[in-house]
Amino acid sequence: MKRNGLVRSFVALAAVAVIAGACGGGGATTAPTTAPESTAPESTAPETQPPATTWKIGYSNAGGVGNGFREEQVCTAKAEALASGQVSELTVIHQNADAAGQLQQIRDLIAKDVDAIVFNPNDPAALNQALEEAKAAGIITVSVDAYVTNPDTYNLYNNQVEYAYLGAKWLFEQMGGTGNVYYMRGFAGHPADSDRHIGFQRALGEYPNITVLPTIDGVHTGWDPATTTQLISDWLSSGQYDNTQGIWTSGMDSQVVDAIKSAGKEFVPIVGADLGAFVTQLLDPTGFPGLEGAAVTNTAAVGGAGVNLALKLLNGEAVQTDPSASQPNTVLLVPVVAENVTDAGKTLLASWQSVPGLDPNWPLGLQIGGWTTYTPEQAITCKGPND
Amino acid sequence: MSAAAAAVDDARARPADAAMAFVRRNGWTLGLLAFLAVLLVYTRAIQPTYGVTGIQGLAISVLPLALASVGQAIVVISGGIDLSIGSMMALTSVVAASQMKGQGEEFGVGIVIAVLALGLLLGAINGSLVVLTRVPDIVVTLAMSFVWAGCALLVLKTPGGGAAVWLKELVKGSLVNEWVPKAAIALVIIVAVIWLPVQRSRLGLSLYAIGSNQLAAFRSGVSVGRTKLASYMLTGLFAALAGLSLTANTGIGTPVPGPYTLTSVAAVVLGGVSLAGGRGGVAGPIVAVVILQLLRSDMTFLNVNTNLATVANGVILIGVVMFGSLIQMRRARA
User: Fold this and answer.
1) B314 alpha carbon, distance to own chain's centre
2) Is residue B219 situated within a structural domain?
3) Homologous superfamily of A160-296 in CATH?
4) Omega into A191 within 30° of 0, i.e. cis?
5) A137 and chain B in contact, CB less than 8 A
6) ipTM score
7) Which chain A residues are within 8 Å of B319, Cβ to Cβ?
8) CA–CA separation, B78 vs B88, rounded Å?
């Protein structure tokens, strides 16, 4: 008995060695490319010499790890931190978590004593408690890709309402203003998904003869390729695709195209995002005959732009915000739509493929005018100041 | 030596024996506590600013998983396992959040009581299915995890709802001393009020008995079915408390279950509870939860990929299970 107790104590203490060993490793993130620049309001920041490399920045991405958009977002954040020459340390937490888990991520960054925290929020309101704690600690907070309701946090994101509206309007026009649309949304509860739903509904209101399938709320892909493939495969095998005249996707687009092609069905008009694979499909009439579609820009460079915004705020520079946004302190990036039906649209799509070696699952937009300073190569390299 | 002198020596020896017996009984948990202490010192060394704020944040963040792990430990001690605990947390959390939104503070008290009752009910359904169908616990609770997750999505399609201010304040900040987080106090009180009386009661003895040897327990007069049902009800109750702590932490309810089910199993194993049942307590799993979270924080402080913490958790679990098996083998040979 005595021996067993001692052995148990030894076992528990042995875990120290295991953990200490685990602490010695390192991780890496893969990388993307460049192309369309989303437009953004001009910053009123004065021309100044960059301050010395003194700022410590934390970055929290708590969802979509492995998703091309999120990976590129993190890489642009690293690239901007490096290119700015002002960041001594960039701490990146790139790990899937629920809202409670992201709260802890932000608290860890507060405990790490960073000067600013840039994050992609899992929920608009759930992080407010930690954001208040950050403010109390004198830390600047910037939400990217979606907004939070904390009034002291700056928001920088693609205008998701407009993103959905532009794509849906093109789709409904392409359908002749009538027919059934399979509505494939993103991650349930994510602010970007909620905003896109508003934009989609706004377009729908202008086209009363369009019917949304399977219900007005659509289906959620979770921005997960596997889930998307499963959903579209079910739709195809159930025969409901035969009664569908258009598909709106929230960025999980190339998987839908591939599934339809594999099923040997004729394509219906499809709307997606500016992901490399989808744009390539749109510009490949031989590989995908009859495919008509439109891509809407949704730059993942919001990660880099968020770091840039945080640095502006740390340096005391003025930032022009958009008063039309739903939250204060918000910078909205305006999306652009390009289709493969007209020559002008094809030319625009082709211009987005300007950088070779693009990972097909990554958005083409690597830079945002006025908000990013790194080169495409720096983003592709995916190295931060302390990597 | 006279008999009197021997008695005096014996009396002197007793406290030392009692202390040694305590150490032997709680060797695993004490080892974990020692490890936690080392880890805290290490954390302070790599992040000198880690202090009150860090400890308070740590306490709040571990509360849901700690409560889930206590629930999981109870059912594992009784020889079962509950793979629906994460889904029960999601369901109880969204029920609480959806009902509290826009309601008065007093109304929130009623909601909390109702949610706790809901937890007991969910556990009772799980337990009844296990007892009545005789289908293995792992299959029943895995299936029920889908049922409860679906119910959560029926209650709230997307994260939302609200939480009473008093509920949020219950786990936020500190009490008496800034180094004593309210979340830690809440955890200690909950465990002391619910688990300790049960553990010391006939029911507690029965839980350990059916976990050790169901047949022997049955022959000793223990009602195996009722005890199993009680264990699942207790687990449901702790799942509801964990769900409420999630709502208190975030101020909303999230219908998609978080990574709590498997992490609670990991904490139970790391906490020294035998997956074969009949052995362990709830203190070990609680300390294990704190260690797992602190390890993750340290990865952040070291600028190491935090996903490696998950790898480390797996490595630790494998190591612990291997050592556990080794102990069992040595015990069998002895």
Assistant:
1) 18
2) yes
3) Response regulator (3.40.50.2300)
4) no
5) yes
6) 0.85
7) 14-15, 18
8) 19
